[in-house]
Design brief:
The chain is an alpha+beta fold. About 20% of the residues lie in helices and about 30% in strands. It is globular, with a radius of gyration of 21 Å.
Length: about 240
């Protein structure tokens, strides 16, 4: 089979309720341009997922020819992580303020979080990412201060938290950015009452440090926050 041959893979459901793949030639199939398991750009429907791949033969899909059930674990997710390009500051701010208030029990006026008024400008030297599942379900930002990064706005809806979900993917995205850009440490401030967040960060190698270790010029609105630091060499 030619290396540029395009296949359309489409799943149906067998008697056990498991997805099965059917293969057919599709001269109009869209060239593969995103990870396997991405949402179908046409239907966007999890009940009718189409995958496209350039391959050398069906040997890459050993379970296709025999019609064996296809294991979708790890292949599909109900969200995607995107680099924020602007235009939805109001929606992003609404999500963050709601999670702060309803999940954390913390009310921080938006006036004390001025970066939410112009996110792209505030993070122009770093990065800001969204988890999207139809609408925004989570956020994370990384600000750069010299050789250090400051992790900001890691807020995710409750139903998208946990291993393999958007919360972990957003965190990994931000840490990867610091590694790629050669930074040596990550700082963050988190409310003293956010004990679940403290446990999350400690499991990843963060430790509580004195505020005097914060990068010069960095400020934060909640005076009761704890300051955590991660040396990049310890990030895993």
């Amino acid at each position: 089979m030619d290396g540029g041959f395009r296949l359309r893979l489409r799943h149906s459901i067998d008697r056990r309720g498991l997805p099965k793949l059917a293969v057919r030639e599709s001269p109009t199939a869209v060239p593969f341009s995103r990870p396997i398991g991405a949402t179908d750009p046409v239907s966007g429907c999890p009940d009718e997922v189409r995958l496209w791949e350039r391959c050398e033969g069906l040997r890459l899909f050993r379970n296709v020819e025999g019609g064996e059930p296809f294991n979708w674990a790890g292949r599909m997710s109900d969200y995607e992580i995107v680099n924020y390009q602007g235009g939805r500051d109001a929606e992003v701010a609404t999500l963050i303020l709601a999670i702060q208030r309803d999940d954390v029990g913390l009310y921080v006026p938006i006036e004390d979080q001025p970066e939410l008024f112009d996110i792209c400008r505030a993070y122009r030297d770093g990065g800001f990412w969204l988890a999207v599942a139809g609408s925004e379900i989570g956020t994370v930002g990384m600000m750069r201060y010299g050789s250090s990064g400051v992790l900001k706005k890691l807020f995710v809806r409750q139903d998208h938290r946990g291993p393999g979900k958007a919360s972990h993917a957003l965190y990994d995205k931000a840490v990867d950015w610091t590694v790629t850009h050669g930074l040596t440490a990550i700082f963050l401030d988190t409310p003293s009452l956010a004990t679940r967040s403290h446990a999350f960060y400690r499991r990843r190698g963060f430790r509580v440090v004195d505020r005097s270790e914060l990068p010069e010029g960095y400020d934060f609105p909640d005076r009761d926050s704890l300051i955590f630091k991660l040396d990049i060499s310890r990030a895993d």
